[in-house]
Write a structure and sequence with these properties.
Shape: extended
Structural class: alpha+beta
Strand content: 5-15%
Radius of gyration: 35 Å
Length: about 550
């Protein structure tokens, strides 16, 4: 591009450069380059991959070290995994009856058939969902959540175990993301022979669509393994019909981002500071608990100089040293050092102050919790300054974080693997499509619809939560299905069916089977029953009472 040049052949400086040279103020203070805070702050402007891929291995290694050696890091990981997955996800199949051209009842029956077959496959005693045959589907999801939280991404391969003799051959193998790398260590952006480029082990076409993944045969850190120097290329889909093969799940937060970034990246410095401060404070507390004592003779050379010559004094000192060596003086296991004649010890020490430890750790833990998407209470298990209102507010934010992680796992892992299994289930006849239903490959998205249910949100005050849930259902802003899923992750239909069985059983057994006079023919008992407030009314009255609210909102002393 042509430019404007001065007479000596050098280009004129731009107005922006001139303003910086003259020290003029920038329009935005955040762009300023002067002052104690901004002068040395000059980060580079690079792409998402350039910002992350060069530092990825170092950051992930440190984040794993935090999880291994810092109780707070391990706490954050476990709280997140337990909230998002627990030990299982349940699935309610709901094929899209409109898209499939079926009646609602026929689609519902198909969903029940799919759900029953999936339950046996995902949580059966043969662990058919896991390529290593040790985890249920819920265990695979826990592993997925742990990798996403600690490493920033999950890598999995849908395999076909044809020779294992089980009913289903579809398997999921979760792979360490460290194994995803460029073949033979070529640079990011390397153009392959097929015209595609490879970045961070992900092969992309001209439209930047991931089409294949390059995975080492073993971890690059394995000792003595030759397989770590060989790569296997796996296409994203294993068949032309779109059967998923490689699952690469991460939270994409920038355009053209290829690999996931761990949330620990922004708090590693805080973790290191927290660890160092904690260690030094414990050392100071240990020193403060020590006491020092010395044995000192009151008859040194000055007191006996007229009675001893030099040789006598040397012999006496040697005998004295041997005596205390053979007969050490101890107090509760602590040995007292013995000073030489006329020696003295001058102690210039001050007790180390550890009173600020609690306040400092609380502040650091709050910063770490905010960055990791968990509450301070979850991270530290400290509820000493928490009342109902603050705990409720924290729970709402934490629940949004949990639902975001669930959504990521659901969309990028659970649905894809479920679709691969359902393809096989229909193919082998474990699931029979109703008459008139379209071919599976023509309506995959309609067949795999449904609802995944993880652990419930949990409640701080059940009285208020029950009353609020009943009010939402009564007002029509929620359903029994929604409330059951949020309360404990259960199936509303199973609850109703179980209640119906319990009611029928109580009716069969008679009045003694019930704690209330509900099943009686006594008119007076019926009148008393109708006059007494129902359980929901009693709970609502308690939740709205002044005494109960005052108790909940009373903030404990720190």
């Amino acid at each position: 591009m042509a430019g404007v040049f001065a007479g000596v052949g050098r280009p004129y400086p731009s107005p922006r450069a001139s303003a910086e040279g003259l020290g003029l103020d920038r329009k935005h203070e955040g762009a300023g380059r002067r002052g104690a805070f901004m002068a040395n702050w000059r980060p580079s402007l690079r792409s998402a991959d350039a910002d992350w891929l060069d530092d990825r291995d170092s950051v992930v290694a440190r984040s794993r070290d935090v999880g291994r050696n810092e109780g707070v890091g391990a706490s954050a990981s476990m709280r997140t995994v337990n909230s998002a997955v627990g030990f299982r996800w349940d699935f309610t199949s709901k094929p899209n009856w409109i898209a499939l051209g079926l009646s609602y009842e026929v689609a519902r029956q198909l969903g029940q058939q799919i759900g029953a077959a999936w339950e046996q496959y995902a949580y059966g005693i043969h662990f058919q969902a896991d390529a290593e045959r040790v985890l249920t589907f819920g265990g695979l999801l826990r592993l997925t959540a742990a990798h996403i939280f600690n490493d920033g991404e999950m890598l999995g391969v849908v395999e076909w175990a044809e020779d294992e003799g089980t009913r289903y051959s579809t398997r999921l193998r979760v792979i360490d993301p460290d194994r995803l790398s460029n073949p033979n260590g070529v640079a990011d952006g390397w153009r392959l022979e097929n015209g595609n480029t490879v970045i961070g082990g992900v092969e992309k076409n001209a439209a930047q669509v991931p089409v294949a993944y390059w995975i080492r045969e073993s971890h690059p850190g394995d000792i003595g393994s030759t397989a770590k120097r060989t790569w296997r290329r796996l296409t994203r889909y294993s068949t032309n019909l779109g059967r998923p093969q490689v699952l690469h799940a991460f939270d994409k937060l920038r355009a053209s981002q290829t690999r996931g970034v761990t949330r620990f990246a922004s708090v590693l410095k805080l973790f290191k500071a927290f660890s160092t401060f904690t260690d030094k404070t414990l050392e100071a507390a240990a020193l403060n608990a020590l006491f020092l004592g010395f044995i000192k003779s009151n008859a040194g050379p000055s007191a006996v100089s007229e009675s001893f010559d030099a040789d006598d004094l040397a012999g006496w000192s040697a005998d004295r040293e041997d005596f205390y060596h053979e007969n050490p003086i101890q107090v509760m296991g602590a040995q007292m050092p013995v000073l030489g004649p006329d020696d003295d010890v001058q102690m210039q020490t001050t007790a180390r102050d550890t009173s600020g430890f609690d306040g400092f750790t609380r502040s650091i833990l709050r910063l770490i919790a905010a960055a990791l998407g968990v509450t301070y209470e979850e991270l530290s298990m400290d509820f000493s300054t928490t009342n109902y209102s603050s705990a409720r507010a924290a729970l709402m934010i934490a629940w949004k974080e949990t639902m975001a992680l669930r959504g990521l796992i659901e969309q990028q892992v659970a649905w894809l693997f479920f679709a691969a299994w359902l393809e096989e289930a229909i193919d082998i006849g474990a699931v029979v499509l109703p008459e008139g239903a379209p071919d599976f490959y023509d309506a995959i998205d309609a067949y795999v619809e449904g609802r995944w249910r993880g652990p419930g949100r949990g409640h701080i005050d059940p009285t208020k939560e029950i009353a609020a849930a009943a009010a939402r259902i009564e007002a029509g802003v929620s359903t029994l299905e929604d409330e059951c899923a949020e309360y404990d992750g259960s199936d509303w239909e199973e609850k109703l069916e179980q209640q119906a069985r319990e009611t029928a059983k109580k009716r069969d057994l008679g009045p003694l089977a019930s704690s209330s006079p509900e099943f009686t023919d006594d008119p007076e008992a019926d009148r008393q029953r109708d006059a007494r407030p129902r359980a929901l009314a009693r709970v609502t009255a308690l939740a709205d009472s002044y005494e109960h609210n005052a108790f909940l909102d009373a903030r404990p002393a720190a």
